[in-house]
Write a structure and sequence with these properties.
single chain, about 60 residues
C-alpha cells in the first residue's frame, strides 16, 4: 500500500458467534466519513483491498 495506513479491528457476528479480525486500511480513507465502519463499507480504496462480509460486519475500531 502506498502512503500511511491504520490498523482497524473488525467485529463480525455469525449466528451468535463473534469474531474479530485486524486489517490495515489507507489513512486517507478515514477522511470524509463520520464513522469508521462507514469508511470500511463505502470507501472504494478499502473495498479494493479487502473482502468483507458486510452482512456480518457489526463494528470497526481503530487500533492505536
Amino acid at each position: 500500500m502506498s502512503g500511511d495506513s491504520v490498523t482497524v479491528r473488525l467485529l463480525f457476528a455469525d449466528q451468535g458467534v463473534f469474531r474479530e479480525e485486524e486489517v490495515r486500511i489507507p489513512s486517507a480513507s478515514l477522511q470524509g466519513y463520520e464513522r469508521l465502519i462507514d469508511a470500511v463499507r463505502e470507501d472504494v480504496e478499502v473495498q479494493k483491498r479487502l473482502h468483507v462480509d458486510m452482512g456480518r460486519l457489526c463494528a470497526a475500531f481503530r487500533v492505536d
